[in-house]
Structure to design on (270 residues):
């Protein structure tokens, strides 16, 4: 029975990993070999030509797109964690009239399809003169309803006795939040930061709407030009996909412990 389980898990691992392996190997193929049918898994003559073309082409500044995405995703995740932590703590620990109503309205926004908000968000960003700037993809999603819900559930699960002891020792509410609650919530904060980073990093529709200049594009929106301009250059497309995937994979490898702990400890209480 144990061998059967390991066999199933190994099979599922191969199913999920094989597209990544094929993506990486195709990026080292020549243009001719990448278009062969049936495709080969291992390149006959590995080459870095696709990487050189993608990274050095004047009309596709991939390195600039990479930096734009990194800056935007990092700053956006910091804003999301900041706003969500403050709101979640107020909803979890502070007593005020209408608290549950406010929380219910915040959660209700999770059921609104994001595409519905594209046009009004575009109008707001335009009136603020943020179009064609990274600010347009950093600030609008800083207020994250899922982040508020996620952290509130985590904060509720923290023992109140620790906070009450700090209050008895003379700490005010801000000191309790900053010095007690946040350090205890590192797994949840790291999980939310990673989720926010991935959401911003992988976003395609919104950057296409608000970023116009080639040098201001993010990686996902910029790489789409490879598909349109080089529809049959599969080695170029896979090279762009590798460039976009490496930071995400590395980030997950380093943060997976926090993700597992954060998710397992959130939602314990309603």
């Amino acid at each position: 029975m144990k061998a059967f389980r390991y066999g199933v898990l190994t099979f599922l691992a191969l199913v999920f990993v094989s597209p990544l392996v094929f993506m990486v190997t195709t990026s080292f193929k020549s243009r001719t070999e990448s278009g062969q049918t049936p495709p080969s898994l291992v390149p006959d003559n590995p080459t870095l030509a696709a990487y050189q073309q993608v990274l050095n082409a004047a009309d596709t500044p991939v390195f600039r797109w990479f930096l734009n995405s990194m800056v935007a995703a990092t700053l956006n995740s910091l804003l999301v964690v900041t706003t969500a932590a403050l709101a979640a703590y107020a909803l979890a620990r502070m007593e005020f009239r209408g608290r549950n109503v406010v929380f219910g309205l915040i959660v209700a926004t999770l059921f609104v399809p994001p595409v519905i908000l594209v046009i009004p968000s575009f109008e707001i960003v335009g009136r603020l003169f943020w179009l064609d700037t990274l600010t347009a993809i950093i600030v609008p999603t800083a207020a994250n309803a899922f982040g508020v819900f996620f952290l509130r559930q985590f904060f509720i699960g923290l023992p109140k006795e620790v906070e009450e002891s700090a209050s008895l020792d003379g700490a005010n509410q801000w000191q309790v939040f900053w010095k007690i609650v946040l350090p205890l919530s590192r797994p949840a904060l790291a999980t939310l930061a990673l989720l926010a980073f991935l959401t911003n990093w992988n976003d395609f529709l919104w950057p296409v709407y608000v970023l116009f200049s080639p040098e201001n594009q993010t990686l996902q929106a910029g790489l789409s030009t490879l598909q349109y301009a080089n529809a049959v250059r599969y080695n170029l497309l896979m090279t762009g996909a590798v460039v976009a995937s490496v930071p995400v994979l590395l980030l997950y490898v380093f943060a997976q412990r926090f993700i597992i702990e954060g998710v397992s400890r959130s939602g314990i209480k309603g």
Summary: The radius of gyration is 23 Å.
